[in-house]
Specification:
CATH class: Alpha Beta
CATH superfamily: Ribonuclease Inhibitor
CATH architecture: Alpha-Beta Horseshoe
Shape: globular
Strand content: 15-25%
Number of domains: 1
Radius of gyration: 20 Å
Strand order of the largest sheet: 1-2-4-6-8-10
Oligomer: single chain
Length: 196
């Protein structure tokens, strides 16, 4: 009897440690908990699972670390949470065509493996955080069709000049300022549908 109790306690401890160590699942669950999901696209996001690699719209690498979130046109509303910055191996954050609002959390700048950030056609506001200049792997940035304001951070132009950021669409927002002559290569990638 004592050995059965010990085995049960060990199992509870192991399961508890696995759940506690799942920071990526916790980060995604923190995001899910504040989203409005009328079509139940996040129904499979079960925080009791050991890792989120079995959840729909989540892709993981061979080490069971989240590399991709595909939630475009999912009719979600809510906002991005700072905990998303804990997804160290995230390469694709695709949340276009939703009703997401608020600002981009500064913590998104921690996602140095990010290759594509697609936030187009949502209701995002505020300024683009300068921390996005830390996204050294970023090659595709689409912020089109939101309500961003202020100026485009010079740190993003540095990503363009270094050759990493190849597509940057910031059209249909409320930005102010000008693109300086020294940044002529940038003007070819800042797309404005009204100019065509």
């Amino acid at each position: 009897m004592a050995s059965q109790i010990l085995i049960c306690l060990l199992l509870v401890t192991v399961v508890g440690v696995a759940v506690d160590c799942n920071s990526e699942g916790d980060a995604l669950n923190a995001w899910k908990s504040q989203l409005v999901d009328p079509n139940n696209v996040l129904q499979s996001w079960d925080p009791t699972l050991v890792n989120p690699c079995t959840w729909f719209h989540v892709t993981c690498n061979s080490e069971n670390s989240v590399t991709r979130l595909d939630l475009g046109n999912a009719n979600l509303s809510g906002y991005l949470v700072p905990q998303l910055g804990q997804l160290a191996n995230l390469q694709y954050l695709e949340v276009f065509g939703n009703n997401l609002s608020g600002t981009i959390p500064t913590a998104i700048g921690n996602l140095t493996s990010l290759v594509s950030l697609n936030l187009q056609h949502n209701q995002f506001t505020g300024v683009i955080p300068t921390s996005l200049g830390n996204l050294i792997s970023l090659s595709y940035l689409n912020l089109n069709g939101n309500k961003f304001s202020g100026i485009i951070p010079s740190d993003l132009f540095l990503l363009v000049q270094r050759g990493n950021l190849r597509v940057m669409n910031v059209s249909d927002n409320m930005f102010a300022g000008t693109v300086h002559r020294g940044n002529l290569t940038v003007t070819t990638i800042i797309q404005d549908p009204k100019a065509s």
